[in-house]
Amino acid sequence: MPSCHVIAIANQKGGTGKSTTAANLGIALAMRKKRVLLVDADPQGDLTTSLGWRDADELDVTLASHIEAVIRDEPYPPDKGILHHAEGVDLMPANIELSATEMALVTAMSREYALKSWLTDAKGAYDYVLIDCMPSLGMLTVNALTAADSVIIPVQAQYLPAKGMTQLVKTISRVKRQINPNLKVDGVLLTLVDARTRLAKQTEAQIRGSYGSVLKVFDTKIPLAVKAAETSAYGKSIFAHDLAGKVSKAYAALAKEVVELGERKRDTFQPSLGR
Predict the structure, then answer these.
(1) What is the pLDDT of residues 23-55, one digit of tens each?
(2) What's the order of all strands across the beta sheet hosting 83-84?
């Protein structure tokens, strides 16, 4: 059986569609018969809220509970608190308690490995884990990059993001060099693309020109659409809200790219069977 693939969805810039991408990519993978766990690693809890859990602060068990158990070196059931969404994905939720947990991590032993320590026990039941990172390069994001096999970088195609991209790529490189040598960047995902505007085309050209030689830029682009913005109000994915729409088709295409990318990597890195 193939091992679980852990993907961090990261960009320290807010408003790039990280939570939307985590939810809709996860559900698109579930529609392809993959077992998917979504992990909300942002104290704002946007992923948790967008999937229908409005009172996240009232939840008894969240990601903070598991990380704090790791910090205290106390046994804790790894699947405790996992929520089940009607569209076939599981969710480890987050709420404001995660802010205090991030502060506690600063002085913890092996502080970069707390999230990975929990996930090592929790991920066995899944084909994919998608971690929705907070919009910063702080300790929680470093934990996510340490736990991940790869990173998807959503970039809003409505502004020139070169400076922020450079900073994120440096952080990923540092984590790879110092903590997680197997970390890969799956690619840059253009989001909120308004194909009618010149700026969107200029942004895409800049990203492909600046980073295309060192980073994959996904063929799939996520278009700007009112219906996509509405989904979080309903606690559903874009597939449940507008199955035939252009955003649904884009996330289905992205899931296909992600699965094929994983298959190519497995084919490339076959273990030696000896002579």
Answers:
(1) 999 999 999 999 999 999 999 999 999 999 999
(2) 83-84, 90-92, 36-41, 128-133, 5-9, 150-156, 184-193, 217-223
CATH code reported for the domain at 5-267: 3.40.50.300
pTM greater than 0.90 (yes/no):
yes
Phi (first) and psi of residue 31, to 5 degrees: -65, -20
Separation of alpha carbons 179 and 239, rounded Å: 37
- Sequence-separated (6 or more) residues with CB below 8 Å from residue 221: 157, 189, 190, 191, 193, 204, 250
Domain boundaries, the chain: 5-267
Q: How far is CA 37 from CA 96, 145, 157, in A?
A: 20, 16, 28
| pLDDT the model gives residue 208 | 83
Q: Please give the Cα distance from 112 to 44 (Å, whole number).
A: 21
Provide mean pLDDT across the span 60-65. 97
